[in-house]
Design brief:
Blueprint lengths: L19 H6 L17 H20 L3 H6 L5 H29 L1 H20 L4 H29 L5 H26 L6 H20 L7 E3 L5 E3 L5 H4 L3 H22 L1 H14 L7 H34 L1 H19 L5 H30 L6 H29 L1 H16 L23
Helix pairs in contact: 2-7, 2-8, 4-5, 4-6, 4-15, 5-6, 5-8, 6-15, 7-12, 7-14, 10-14, 10-15, 10-16, 11-12, 12-13, 12-14, 13-14, 13-16, 15-16
Length: 454
């Protein structure tokens, strides 16, 4: 990561004297040499990628069976979707505390501890004997989830070279998606052994990821830059109030809210329920047919195809975002996702159900790396951005809380199509904030040199 040497003081015109040892160890911002630009993925990011794969592999095991497992306790669709909302609610409430814990104990320890807590929550879910115990286990898991998520975001933003931020975000997301490709398939197969088995396997995956983080990820010293005397000092923090002055950050907040609501929330709750309802309508009258088991298999395969389309596009979308800009990628992804989500509610054939999931995966891949990179561009490498990053994550959790509950209410009252239509409309509205060609607004004194917001 390059270190910034400030320009001469505007007040005195004095040029700071910089020791020769410092001159040799830093790269003067504003005078880049393409041949010297860092285009390699840092070791810290590689560790996150490995851990992310194991986390996603375990999560993919649980996702297809979670709503059905909740309904096995004789609850309705809205209560079944609350197993996801409860997880997100605990993440939201614990986010401010997790930021303080990271400051006190370091990212590596909080990342690893968070993984262990989620693992314990998964074990509790697998041992649940009633619906309240399942919800309590999900709440425990949510507190650990926000701990490792915020810690990972901080490490990712700080260690991503500016010239390849989209590429790094794409690699990180792809590792998660590769786990999602294998996870749902294994989860659907494991459901034959019972709905509780995936929860215990998930816990094992999390403990393995925690071991990787504790042994391979290194703690880093507080971020520093050089003051006007060439002396290293603590880097300034970008506050939430300052971040909100960037129009791209405001758009990113609403976008992440809709992504949490319409893509992540519905993918984990409504899609599995819709799969069961679709097969029940087609084969429910057949003797001996179990739509719940068949629906879990279809949901697992659908989530796997979503992840496949997502992973294939992630390989290119991050690099493309670095090349043509963040806004065109985010806009196109939201536009496609909104249209496909609305069409999801009209599907009457399993093959179309799976095909739509592939398109939705591609749409999510178009927007996700560039959305993460857009946030990284705003925070930059030269300062900390814990507060803006935490709120960026929190709005996604709000979407995960409200979206599934609202969708469950609509499904119980009017059916699946209105739930998908509302979710798709939100994605289309979010796309307005990223229309290509519209110049974003930002304070030049807060932005990194060379920042355009494109």
């Amino acid at each position: 990561m390059s270190k910034h040497i400030p320009t001469p003081s505007m007040d005195t015109g004095a040029i700071p004297v910089i020791p020769e040892s410092i001159r040799r160890s830093v790269h003067i911002q504003g005078s880049p040499h393409p041949a010297q630009e860092n285009t390699k993925v840092p070791t810290q990011i590689k560790v996150l990628i490995a851990a992310s794969f194991l986390i996603a592999l375990g999560y993919g095991l649980v996702a297809p069976v979670l709503p059905g497992f909740a309904r096995s306790f004789d609850v309705g669709a809205m209560a079944a979707t609350f197993v996801v909302s409860a997880f997100a609610l605990s993440r939201l409430l614990f986010a401010p505390v997790s930021g303080k814990l990271i400051t006190a104990f370091g990212e590596r320890r909080i990342y690893s501890t968070g993984l262990i807590i989620v693992g314990l929550g998964s074990i509790g879910a697998g041992l649940s004997i009633n619906y309240p115990m399942l919800i309590a286990s999900r709440i425990i898991g949510g507190t650990g989830s926000v701990m490792f998520t915020v810690a990972a975001m901080g490490i990712l933003v700080r260690n991503s070279p500016p010239s390849i931020r989209g590429k790094v975000s794409g690699y990180y997301a792809t590792s998660f998606l590769l786990g999602n490709i294998l996870g749902p398939v294994l989860g659907a197969a494991a459901s034959a052994l019972g709905m509780r088995v995936p929860f215990f396997v998930y816990a094992g995956m999390l403990l393995c990821a925690s071991l990787i983080v504790m042994t391979q990820l290194k703690d880093q010293a507080p971020q520093t830059h050089l003051n006007t005397q060439g002396i290293p000092v603590a880097k300034p923090e970008l506050t939430l109030k300052e971040a909100l002055k960037f129009s791209n950050y405001r758009s990113a907040l609403f976008t992440n809210l809709t992504v949490g609501w319409s893509i992540f929330g519905l993918q984990s709750t409504v899609v599995p329920l819709a799969a069961v309802a679709l097969l029940a309508s087609l084969h429910g009258s057949e003797a001996g047919y179990d739509p719940a088991a068949a629906g879990a298999r279809l949901a697992g395969f659908t989530l796997a195809t979503y992840a496949t389309g997502n992973a294939l596009m992630q390989i290119y979308s991050g690099k493309l975002g670095d090349r043509i800009g963040r806004r065109p990628m985010i806009f196109s992804g939201l536009l496609l996702a909104g249209i496909v989500t609305i069409l999801f509610g009209t599907i009457t054939a399993p093959s179309a159900f799976v095909a739509s999931a592939i398109l939705l995966g591609i749409a999510a891949a178009l927007l996700s790396p560039s959305l993460q990179a857009a946030i990284s561009d705003i925070v930059g490498n030269k300062r900390s951005g814990g507060q803006p990053l935490a709120y960026f994550q929190m709005v996604s959790d709000i979407g995960l809380i409200v979206g599934p509950l609202f969708a469950g209410f609509i499904i119980d009252a009017w059916g699946f199509f209105p739930a998908f239509a509302v979710a798709g409309a939100l994605l289309l509205i979010a796309a307005i904030g990223w229309i290509p060609g519209i110049k974003p607004k930002f304070p030049a004194d807060l932005a990194d040199k060379g920042y355009t917001g494109r």
